[in-house]
Protein backbone atom coordinates (compact mmCIF):
# COMPACT_ATOMS: atom_id res chain seq x y z
CA UNK A 1 0.00 0.00 0.00
CA UNK A 2 1.21 3.47 -0.85
CA UNK A 3 0.57 4.72 2.67
CA UNK A 4 1.59 8.30 2.11
CA UNK A 5 -1.49 8.71 -0.08
CA UNK A 6 -3.83 8.35 2.87
CA UNK A 7 -3.17 11.24 5.27
CA UNK A 8 -5.62 12.34 7.92
CA UNK A 9 -6.14 15.71 9.54
CA UNK A 10 -5.04 15.39 13.17
CA UNK A 11 -5.34 18.08 15.85
CA UNK A 12 -3.79 18.21 19.31
CA UNK A 13 -6.89 19.64 21.04
CA UNK A 14 -9.76 17.16 20.65
CA UNK A 15 -13.16 18.32 19.39
CA UNK A 16 -14.97 17.15 22.53
CA UNK A 17 -12.95 19.64 24.58
CA UNK A 18 -13.70 22.51 22.21
CA UNK A 19 -17.36 21.45 22.15
CA UNK A 20 -17.45 21.95 25.91
CA UNK A 21 -15.98 25.45 25.64
CA UNK A 22 -18.67 26.50 23.12
CA UNK A 23 -21.12 26.21 26.02
CA UNK A 24 -19.24 28.80 28.06
CA UNK A 25 -21.10 31.79 29.44
CA UNK A 26 -18.08 33.84 28.36
CA UNK A 27 -19.08 34.71 24.79
CA UNK A 28 -15.50 35.39 23.70
CA UNK A 29 -14.36 31.95 24.78
CA UNK A 30 -17.39 30.30 23.23
CA UNK A 31 -16.97 32.15 19.93
CA UNK A 32 -13.27 31.32 19.64
CA UNK A 33 -13.96 27.64 20.32
CA UNK A 34 -16.74 27.63 17.72
CA UNK A 35 -14.50 29.23 15.11
CA UNK A 36 -11.77 26.69 15.82
CA UNK A 37 -14.21 23.79 15.49
CA UNK A 38 -15.61 25.17 12.23
CA UNK A 39 -12.13 25.60 10.83
CA UNK A 40 -11.09 22.08 11.85
CA UNK A 41 -14.22 20.59 10.32
CA UNK A 42 -13.50 22.34 7.02
CA UNK A 43 -9.90 21.12 7.05
CA UNK A 44 -11.03 17.53 7.68
CA UNK A 45 -13.38 17.77 4.69
CA UNK A 46 -10.58 19.09 2.50
CA UNK A 47 -8.31 16.29 3.67
CA UNK A 48 -10.91 13.65 2.78
CA UNK A 49 -11.30 15.16 -0.70
CA UNK A 50 -7.54 15.16 -1.17
CA UNK A 51 -7.40 11.51 -0.10
CA UNK A 52 -10.17 10.48 -2.53
CA UNK A 53 -8.34 12.23 -5.37
CA UNK A 54 -5.16 10.41 -4.45
CA UNK A 55 -3.10 13.57 -4.11
CA UNK A 56 0.08 12.76 -2.19
CA UNK A 57 2.40 15.02 -0.26
CA UNK A 58 5.45 16.29 -2.08
CA UNK A 59 8.05 13.57 -2.48
CA UNK A 60 11.43 13.77 -0.80
CA UNK A 61 14.54 14.53 -2.83
CA UNK A 62 16.46 11.67 -4.48
CA UNK A 63 18.66 9.70 -2.07
CA UNK A 64 21.92 11.20 -3.27
CA UNK A 65 20.57 14.74 -2.81
CA UNK A 66 19.28 14.39 0.75
CA UNK A 67 21.13 16.03 3.63
CA UNK A 68 22.11 13.83 6.56
CA UNK A 69 20.41 16.16 9.04
CA UNK A 70 16.95 17.69 9.07
CA UNK A 71 15.76 20.05 6.37
CA UNK A 72 13.55 22.49 8.29
CA UNK A 73 11.56 25.46 7.06
CA UNK A 74 9.35 27.62 9.24
CA UNK A 75 6.70 29.89 7.73
CA UNK A 76 4.63 32.72 9.20
CA UNK A 77 0.94 32.70 8.27
CA UNK A 78 0.66 36.26 9.63
CA UNK A 79 -2.69 35.38 11.22
CA UNK A 80 -4.20 34.23 7.95
CA UNK A 81 -5.11 30.65 7.05
CA UNK A 82 -3.39 30.28 3.70
CA UNK A 83 -0.56 27.76 3.81
CA UNK A 84 2.33 27.68 4.05
CA UNK A 85 2.72 31.48 4.51
CA UNK A 86 5.90 33.57 4.34
CA UNK A 87 9.22 31.79 4.88
CA UNK A 88 10.89 33.19 8.02
CA UNK A 89 13.55 30.61 8.88
CA UNK A 90 15.35 27.91 6.92
CA UNK A 91 17.70 25.11 7.85
CA UNK A 92 20.91 26.34 9.44
CA UNK A 93 19.87 29.97 9.82
CA UNK A 94 20.29 31.76 13.13
CA UNK A 95 17.43 32.28 15.61
CA UNK A 96 15.41 35.44 15.11
CA UNK A 97 13.41 37.63 17.47
CA UNK A 98 10.21 35.58 17.19
CA UNK A 99 10.23 33.00 20.00
CA UNK A 100 7.39 31.05 18.38
CA UNK A 101 9.41 30.59 15.19
CA UNK A 102 12.44 29.50 17.21
CA UNK A 103 10.44 26.98 19.25
CA UNK A 104 8.89 25.48 16.12
CA UNK A 105 12.31 25.18 14.47
CA UNK A 106 13.81 23.55 17.56
CA UNK A 107 10.86 21.17 17.91
CA UNK A 108 11.20 19.98 14.33
CA UNK A 109 14.86 19.30 15.00
CA UNK A 110 14.19 17.49 18.26
CA UNK A 111 11.70 15.21 16.53
CA UNK A 112 14.10 14.45 13.70
CA UNK A 113 16.88 13.70 16.19
CA UNK A 114 14.86 11.31 18.36
CA UNK A 115 13.74 9.22 15.41
CA UNK A 116 17.22 9.19 13.86
CA UNK A 117 19.22 8.51 17.02
CA UNK A 118 16.87 6.12 18.78
CA UNK A 119 15.31 4.27 15.85
CA UNK A 120 17.54 4.93 12.83
CA UNK A 121 14.68 6.64 11.00
CA UNK A 122 15.57 9.37 8.51
CA UNK A 123 12.80 11.94 8.99
CA UNK A 124 9.06 11.28 9.05
CA UNK A 125 8.96 9.07 5.96
CA UNK A 126 12.39 7.45 6.56
CA UNK A 127 13.45 9.01 3.27
CA UNK A 128 14.57 12.47 4.33
CA UNK A 129 11.24 14.26 4.02
CA UNK A 130 11.72 18.01 4.61
CA UNK A 131 10.03 19.22 7.79
CA UNK A 132 7.84 22.28 7.32
CA UNK A 133 5.90 24.23 9.93
CA UNK A 134 3.66 27.27 9.84
CA UNK A 135 3.22 29.47 12.92
CA UNK A 136 0.86 32.35 13.78
CA UNK A 137 -1.94 30.55 11.95
CA UNK A 138 -5.33 32.27 12.02
CA UNK A 139 -6.61 34.62 14.69
CA UNK A 140 -6.81 33.20 18.22
CA UNK A 141 -6.78 29.73 16.70
CA UNK A 142 -6.92 27.21 19.55
CA UNK A 143 -5.19 24.24 17.98
CA UNK A 144 -2.21 22.76 16.19
CA UNK A 145 -2.40 20.14 13.47
CA UNK A 146 -0.64 17.84 11.02
CA UNK A 147 -2.41 18.05 7.65
CA UNK A 148 -0.61 15.20 5.92
CA UNK A 149 2.09 17.52 4.59
CA UNK A 150 3.22 19.86 7.36
CA UNK A 151 2.81 21.15 10.91
CA UNK A 152 0.60 24.15 11.67
CA UNK A 153 0.44 26.05 14.97
CA UNK A 154 -2.12 28.49 16.29
CA UNK A 155 -1.22 31.17 18.81
CA UNK A 156 -4.04 30.22 21.14
CA UNK A 157 -6.42 32.73 22.65
CA UNK A 158 -4.01 33.76 25.42
CA UNK A 159 -6.69 32.79 27.90
CA UNK A 160 -7.59 29.09 27.98
CA UNK A 161 -4.78 28.12 25.62
CA UNK A 162 -1.37 29.65 25.17
CA UNK A 163 1.01 29.41 22.18
CA UNK A 164 0.88 25.91 20.68
CA UNK A 165 4.65 25.76 20.22
CA UNK A 166 5.14 26.04 23.98
CA UNK A 167 5.63 22.31 24.54
CA UNK A 168 7.96 20.20 22.39
CA UNK A 169 5.78 17.13 22.90
CA UNK A 170 2.95 18.88 21.03
CA UNK A 171 5.27 19.37 18.07
CA UNK A 172 6.48 15.79 18.34
CA UNK A 173 2.93 14.49 18.72
CA UNK A 174 1.75 16.05 15.48
CA UNK A 175 4.82 15.03 13.48
CA UNK A 176 4.46 11.49 14.79
CA UNK A 177 1.08 11.36 13.04
CA UNK A 178 3.19 11.60 9.90
CA UNK A 179 5.27 8.59 10.97
CA UNK A 180 2.07 6.60 11.47
CA UNK A 181 0.81 7.84 8.10
CA UNK A 182 3.91 6.51 6.36
CA UNK A 183 3.97 3.17 8.23
CA UNK A 184 0.93 1.38 9.68
CA UNK A 185 -1.41 4.09 8.35
CA UNK A 186 -3.89 3.45 11.16
CA UNK A 187 -7.45 4.41 10.31
CA UNK A 188 -8.60 7.45 12.29
CA UNK A 189 -11.64 5.77 13.82
CA UNK A 190 -12.47 3.91 17.05
CA UNK A 191 -9.64 1.74 18.42
CA UNK A 192 -7.41 2.12 15.37
CA UNK A 193 -7.81 5.89 15.68
CA UNK A 194 -7.13 5.76 19.41
CA UNK A 195 -3.95 3.80 18.65
CA UNK A 196 -3.06 6.47 16.07
CA UNK A 197 -3.46 9.16 18.74
CA UNK A 198 -1.62 7.09 21.32
CA UNK A 199 1.37 6.57 19.00
CA UNK A 200 1.67 10.34 18.76
CA UNK A 201 1.42 10.80 22.52
CA UNK A 202 4.02 8.10 23.10
CA UNK A 203 6.55 9.50 20.65
CA UNK A 204 5.73 13.09 21.62
CA UNK A 205 6.55 12.23 25.23
CA UNK A 206 9.71 10.38 24.18
CA UNK A 207 10.87 13.41 22.20
CA UNK A 208 10.46 15.59 25.28
CA UNK A 209 12.25 13.05 27.46
CA UNK A 210 15.07 12.70 24.92
CA UNK A 211 15.46 16.48 24.67
CA UNK A 212 15.62 16.78 28.48
CA UNK A 213 17.74 13.61 28.84
CA UNK A 214 15.25 12.20 31.31
CA UNK A 215 14.78 8.68 32.57
CA UNK A 216 11.28 7.22 32.73
CA UNK A 217 10.93 7.98 36.43
CA UNK A 218 12.01 11.61 35.91
CA UNK A 219 9.48 12.34 33.14
CA UNK A 220 6.14 14.03 33.85
CA UNK A 221 4.30 11.89 31.25
CA UNK A 222 2.09 14.87 30.41
CA UNK A 223 1.07 15.91 26.90
CA UNK A 224 0.85 19.67 26.47
CA UNK A 225 2.24 20.77 29.84
CA UNK A 226 2.39 24.57 29.81
CA UNK A 227 -0.29 24.94 27.14
CA UNK A 228 -3.25 25.67 29.42
CA UNK A 229 -3.79 29.25 30.59
CA UNK A 230 -2.96 30.26 34.16
CA UNK A 231 -6.62 30.36 35.24
CA UNK A 232 -7.38 26.85 33.99
CA UNK A 233 -7.60 24.11 36.61
CA UNK A 234 -5.35 21.59 34.94
CA UNK A 235 -1.77 20.70 34.09
CA UNK A 236 -1.97 19.48 30.47
CA UNK A 237 -4.21 18.04 27.77
CA UNK A 238 -3.53 14.43 28.75
CA UNK A 239 -1.65 12.39 31.33
CA UNK A 240 -0.14 9.05 30.39
CA UNK A 241 0.69 8.34 34.02
CA UNK A 242 -2.84 8.97 35.25
CA UNK A 243 -5.36 9.26 32.40
CA UNK A 244 -8.42 11.23 33.44
CA UNK A 245 -6.54 13.64 35.74
CA UNK A 246 -4.98 16.16 33.32
CA UNK A 247 -7.66 18.80 33.92
CA UNK A 248 -10.88 19.37 35.83
CA UNK A 249 -12.09 22.84 34.96
CA UNK A 250 -15.36 24.75 34.81
CA UNK A 251 -14.77 25.67 31.15
CA UNK A 252 -12.90 22.61 29.85
CA UNK A 253 -14.84 20.06 31.87
CA UNK A 254 -13.14 16.99 33.32
CA UNK A 255 -10.53 14.95 31.49
CA UNK A 256 -12.56 11.97 30.14
CA UNK A 257 -9.70 9.58 29.42
CA UNK A 258 -9.90 6.04 30.85
CA UNK A 259 -6.79 4.21 32.04
CA UNK A 260 -8.13 0.68 31.58
CA UNK A 261 -10.64 -1.24 29.46
CA UNK A 262 -13.02 -1.32 32.42
CA UNK A 263 -13.81 2.33 31.67
CA UNK A 264 -13.63 2.19 27.86
CA UNK A 265 -15.86 4.91 26.38
CA UNK A 266 -18.27 3.92 23.61
CA UNK A 267 -19.12 7.10 21.74
CA UNK A 268 -19.87 8.32 18.22
CA UNK A 269 -18.14 11.65 18.92
CA UNK A 270 -14.49 12.36 18.20
CA UNK A 271 -14.33 9.67 15.49
CA UNK A 272 -15.40 7.08 18.03
CA UNK A 273 -13.38 8.49 20.90
CA UNK A 274 -9.91 8.56 19.36
CA UNK A 275 -8.63 11.21 21.78
CA UNK A 276 -10.45 9.64 24.74
CA UNK A 277 -9.70 5.92 24.61
CA UNK A 278 -6.09 6.57 23.64
CA UNK A 279 -5.60 6.84 27.41
CA UNK A 280 -5.60 3.03 27.62
CA UNK A 281 -2.63 2.25 25.31
CA UNK A 282 -0.97 5.43 26.65
CA UNK A 283 -1.15 4.04 30.16
CA UNK A 284 0.11 0.65 29.02
CA UNK A 285 3.20 2.32 27.59
CA UNK A 286 3.75 4.34 30.77
CA UNK A 287 3.51 1.16 32.85
CA UNK A 288 5.97 -0.63 30.57
CA UNK A 289 8.47 2.23 30.48
CA UNK A 290 8.49 2.81 34.23
CA UNK A 291 8.66 -0.92 34.94
CA UNK A 292 11.73 -1.27 32.71
CA UNK A 293 13.24 1.99 33.94
CA UNK A 294 16.12 3.90 32.37
CA UNK A 295 15.65 5.88 29.16
CA UNK A 296 12.18 5.04 27.86
CA UNK A 297 13.14 5.25 24.19
CA UNK A 298 15.80 2.55 24.54
CA UNK A 299 13.58 -0.44 25.30
CA UNK A 300 9.89 0.46 25.70
CA UNK A 301 10.04 2.93 22.82
CA UNK A 302 11.92 0.47 20.63
CA UNK A 303 9.23 -2.15 21.16
CA UNK A 304 6.48 0.31 20.25
CA UNK A 305 8.42 1.52 17.19
CA UNK A 306 9.02 -2.04 16.01
CA UNK A 307 5.32 -2.79 16.38
CA UNK A 308 4.24 0.33 14.49
CA UNK A 309 6.69 -0.14 11.64
CA UNK A 310 6.89 -3.93 11.44
CA UNK A 311 4.42 -4.28 8.59
CA UNK A 312 1.95 -6.55 10.40
CA UNK A 313 -0.24 -3.92 12.07
CA UNK A 314 -3.41 -3.54 10.02
CA UNK A 315 -4.98 -0.17 9.29
CA UNK A 316 -8.06 -1.17 11.33
CA UNK A 317 -6.06 -2.64 14.22
CA UNK A 318 -7.64 -2.97 17.65
CA UNK A 319 -5.86 -2.58 20.97
CA UNK A 320 -5.55 -6.36 21.23
CA UNK A 321 -3.84 -6.52 17.83
CA UNK A 322 -1.25 -3.97 18.85
CA UNK A 323 -0.79 -5.67 22.21
CA UNK A 324 -0.22 -9.08 20.63
CA UNK A 325 2.27 -7.70 18.11
CA UNK A 326 4.10 -5.70 20.77
CA UNK A 327 4.59 -8.87 22.80
CA UNK A 328 6.05 -10.55 19.71
CA UNK A 329 8.22 -7.50 19.02
CA UNK A 330 9.61 -7.56 22.55
CA UNK A 331 10.45 -11.24 22.25
CA UNK A 332 12.04 -10.76 18.83
CA UNK A 333 14.29 -7.88 19.86
CA UNK A 334 15.06 -8.68 23.50
CA UNK A 335 14.46 -12.41 23.83
CA UNK A 336 11.52 -14.71 24.45
CA UNK A 337 10.67 -14.81 28.14
CA UNK A 338 13.10 -12.04 28.99
CA UNK A 339 12.56 -8.98 31.18
CA UNK A 340 11.16 -6.85 28.36
CA UNK A 341 8.87 -9.61 27.11
CA UNK A 342 7.42 -10.19 30.58
CA UNK A 343 7.05 -6.45 31.19
CA UNK A 344 4.99 -5.98 28.02
CA UNK A 345 2.68 -8.83 29.00
CA UNK A 346 2.27 -7.31 32.46
CA UNK A 347 1.55 -3.79 31.17
CA UNK A 348 -1.25 -4.88 28.84
CA UNK A 349 -2.70 -7.11 31.55
CA UNK A 350 -2.82 -4.14 33.94
CA UNK A 351 -4.94 -2.11 31.51
CA UNK A 352 -7.15 -5.06 30.63
CA UNK A 353 -6.12 -5.62 27.02
CA UNK A 354 -5.66 -9.28 25.98
CA UNK A 355 -2.44 -10.26 24.21
CA UNK A 356 -3.63 -13.54 22.68
TrEMBL record:
Active site: 174, 275 (proton donor)
Signal sequence, renumbered to the chain: none
InterPro entries per UniProt: Metalloprotease_M4, Peptidase_M4, Peptidase_M4/M1_CTD_sf, Peptidase_M4_C_domain, Peptidase_M4_domain
Cofactor: Zn(2+)
Gene3D superfamilies, per database record: 3.10.170.10, Neutral Protease Domain 2 (1.10.390.10)
EC number of the protein: 3.4.24.-
Keyword Zinc (UniProt): yes
PANTHER family listed in its UniProt record: NEUTRAL METALLOPROTEINASE, PTHR43579
Protein name, per record: Neutral metalloproteinase
Organism of derivation: Streptomyces venezuelae
Amino acid sequence: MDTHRHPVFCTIVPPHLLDRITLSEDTRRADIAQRTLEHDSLQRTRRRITTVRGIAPALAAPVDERPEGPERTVYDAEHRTRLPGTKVRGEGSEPGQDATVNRAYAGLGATFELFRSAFGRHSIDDAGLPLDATVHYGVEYNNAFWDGRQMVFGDGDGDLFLDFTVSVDIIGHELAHGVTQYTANLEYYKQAGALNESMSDVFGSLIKQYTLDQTADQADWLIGAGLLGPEVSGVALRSMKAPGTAYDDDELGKDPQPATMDDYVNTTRDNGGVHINSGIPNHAFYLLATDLGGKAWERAGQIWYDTLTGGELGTKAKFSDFARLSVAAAAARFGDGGTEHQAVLKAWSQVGVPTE
